[in-house]
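Reviewers asked in the last cycle whether our approach scales beyond single polypeptides. To address this, we selected a multi-component target totalling 391 residues and predicted its structure end to end. The input consisted of the following lines:
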Amino acid sequence: MINDFVYDIPVRVYFGRDQLHHLGAELSRYGKRVLMTYGGGSIKRIGLYDRVVKEIRDAGLELYELPGIEPNPRIDSVRRGAQMCKEHNIDVLLAVGGGSTIDATKFIAAGACVDFDPWDFLDLSKRAPVERALPIVDILTLSATGSEMDSGGVISNPSTNDKIGRLDPKLLPKVSFLDPTNTFTVSPYQTACGAADMMSHIIEVYFNMEPDFFMLDCFMEGMMKTILRYAPVAMREPENYEARANLMWTSSWAINGFVNAGKRLAWSCHPMEHELSAYYDITHGLGLAILTPRWLEYCLDESTVSRYAQWGVNVFGISASLPPMEIARKAIAELSHFLFGVLQLKRTLTEVGIDATHFATMAHKAAGGDVLPGFKPLRPADVEAIYRMCL
Ligand code: NZQ
Ligand code: ZN
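The resulting structure, written as structure tokens, was:
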């Protein structure tokens, strides 16, 4: 039985290479004073900064800037941004960058409306409600997280070794500008990490114990095939518009709520990966690439094999006439080949300098001290075993 669901993603998307002239009008709908947030400078190197500033000036808006948002964005950047919003009475936020910039901007938008420390929104012992947030417009420059079309954000607090996510509809961007040409300069490595991230977002939903929904299965299988097809093209030919466009739209749809309609989902690899980033500040997509095939291997048994077999046949083209367990193992091998061979990502935690020192604590945190629900419920000992498989 397919579950009931509500689908409500009110993000206006301007997709394509000639859409930025709408920026001034879109920002003006929310007020005059704009805080533009961005990362370490890539938007200046690619010429996007100048184009955006021109649009803002031409529209007669007042511009303030918060540069320097880190990959794996930190709570201190959020605090700085929220403070600026209050000081300058900001009306609307404009995030220009990848998932890190957009995520930080979501909590700046909420932090601007409260008197308490924005970490309280994330802190698991507090979880302050998000009552209000300033409106957010974004210009995406890296296809990966889907933050441009989802209500979530993930923030790091290095002082406590925490990296915590939070979803709230008030954090959804009002408008997202998705111009694939803005991703032409993304390095092959970041392109690969982005592809691994999107693939994981789909796998986290595809592998679950909820009732099947044929139409959504086909949609997810199509998106996975899109990533398999176009990520290597984008790495080889960074200015291939067709490849960048396919990846960009997949990044948004992998996580905008469409594919999990009605499924009571719990994700597994993301909580495990967020601990890796929290302790070692590694790139999110890389951590997921290392974890995902091991997690799939760990969860494979007679009770789950049919899902793997469907995946293997429909996504990797493995012969349906083989025994299901053989299809499943071949499919995991195909995924590993894609991640570590085609995308050339590192295969083990050891290769990225991570050893078992913190595994027990990380496993405990990932499982929320008890059990990580999901495709297969994982206790801390299971999570630790999966980390060990990655060494
Ligand atoms: O900082 P700048 O100089 O902009 O450089 C960035 C950064 O170094 C660079 N970059 C971005 N666009 C570029 C570019 N370089 C050249 N040309 C361009 N056009 O790429 C580097 C990585 O950027 P970042 O924003 O960190 O990457 P990504 O988009 O992968 O975001 C990762 C963050 O998002 C979180 C992750 O945990 C991580 O903190 N996630 C957010 C999610 C969400 N909101 O729903 C879901 C995800 O699962 C994920 O957890
Ligand atoms: Zn992710």
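The two ends are 40 Å apart (CA to CA). We regard this as preliminary and will revisit it once experimental data from Aim 1 are available.
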